[in-house]
Amino acid sequence: MNLFGQIILFTLIGTWLIKLAADLLNLRAASPTLPEAFRDIYDPAEYRRSQEYLRANTKFSLISSTFDLALLLVFWFAGGFNWLDQLIRALGFDPVVNGVLYIGALLLFQGVINLPFSIWHTFVLEEKFGFNQTTPKVFAADLIKTVLLSAVIGAPVLAAILWFFQSAGPLGWLWAWGGVTAFSLLLQYVAPTWIMPMFNKFEPLEDGELRKSIMDYAAEVRFPLTGIYVMDGSKRSAKGNAFFTGFGKNKRIALFDTLIKNHSTGELVAVLAHEIGHFKKKHILMSMVLSMLNLGVVFYLLSLFMNNRMLFDAFDMQQTSVYASLLFFMLLYNPVEFIISILMQMLSRRNEFEADNYAVTTYRNGALLADALKKLSRQNLSNLTPHPFNVFLNYSHPPVLQRVERIEAAARH
397: annotated binding-site residue? Predict the structure, then answer.
């Protein structure tokens, strides 16, 4: 195995070991004592159940990630990448079509192999803890829609990327970056009205106290709210959530029906004030810009490793190609992406604190955000005492206990 192969193997196993250590530390950090701030919302039985849920999810994650790593290594060392490449080349298509078929076949194979894990997680683990609302019919429909969308949207985008790198010369990476960026912006614009309704129903929030309170607050902070929708989250899970999606005239806020069911009007407005805070503080724009810049760096570096014989030798490939270059480079880039993800998580946690503070300082009942977070934690059986290393590695949101303490402190001033 050459140097590239050694680097990829070392980082694959290394990142798996780091995540394993984080999971084990997280389990050890699970405190049997309910934090004082949650004693008005949790009872001891529910708290014990949240820790059982943590252990069950950690065990599932460990098994599935170990299986994924083992599958990749077996396929690699058995010569699977070259075998599939020769099989597809024998069909006689041009390189772009070969690339779509090659990467599509690998993704399909991975999806089929991982399907039992997805079924078990949904219908056994989530069912055991009372979260699953998904029927086999809905599960199958979601799967079919996802595959079709991947074929209708993903395949042409992949083909365009391969064509640019294949045909546009030294600046192919720049054309690919520009094309994918433009398409991503278009997709975010149309997704709320064209794609998301394929999976869930979005009904306008009916007139009443909640809608009036939300619209009054939005007017106070001069937020151009064009749509408030209720999403049938209960179709799949008993967990609650809210999110902001789209941009321009297609901005909309979606509330899970499970969230509305379990929270007061003041708590719901406080949650939406947090979401509006992300928009006002330009967190969404910042995230989009950073993602685009990262994609540009990835495409540029990919152009430097295009058809690198040493990289192909690491996977025992007989012939070089643009599509396999893309795949193998992403494996080589994995440690850099791992570090970038940690930095993005750190930024995300900072943004969550800022959005919390925005809600507290702009909404007269902003302190109710703490009550909403407590209820959400109980409803979702959240881990209240995660280990700091696990937070550092995996959390896009700060631990809920830290958020509650900061919100309550800000509300007192």
Answer: no
What domains are defined for the chain? 3-200+280-412 (no CATH), 202-273 (3.30.2010.10)
Determine whether the annotation assigns residue 413 to a binding site.
no
Specify the residue for token string 């809608």: 211
The helix (run of H) or strand (run of E) holding residue 25 is helix 3-28
Q: Are 393 and 25 in contact (CB under 8 A)?
A: no
**CB neighbours of residue 166 within 10 Å:** 17
Distance CA 404, CA 227 (A): 28
- Dihedral angle of Cα 348, 350, 352, 353, to the nearest 10 degrees: 170
Catalytic residues: 275, 356
Average pLDDT score over residue span 255-279: 91
- 263 has binding-site annotation: no
Give the CA angle between residues 380, 341, 402 to the nearest 5°: 45
Of 318, 394, 319, 381, nearest to 349 (Cα)? 394
- Say how far apart CA 295 and CA 352 lie, in whole Å: 24
Rounded distance, CA 98 to CA 101, Å? 5
Q: What is the pLDDT of residues 302-346, one digit of tens each?
A: 999 999 999 999 999 999 999 999 999 999 999 999 999 999 999
Angle at CA 82, nearest 5°, toward 81 and 87?
Answer: 105
| DSSP 8-class letter at 123 | I
- With a pLDDT cut of 90, the percent of the chain lying above it is 76
Residue-wise pLDDT for 243-264, tens only, equals 777 666 666 788 898 889 889 9
Residue-wise pLDDT for 112-144, tens only, equals: 999 999 999 999 999 999 999 999 999 999 999
Q: Two tokens at 251?
A: 């901005």
Q: Global pTM?
A: 0.90
| CA angle at 209 for the pair 208 and 213, rounded to the nearest 5° | 120
Share of the chain above pLDDT 70, in %: 99
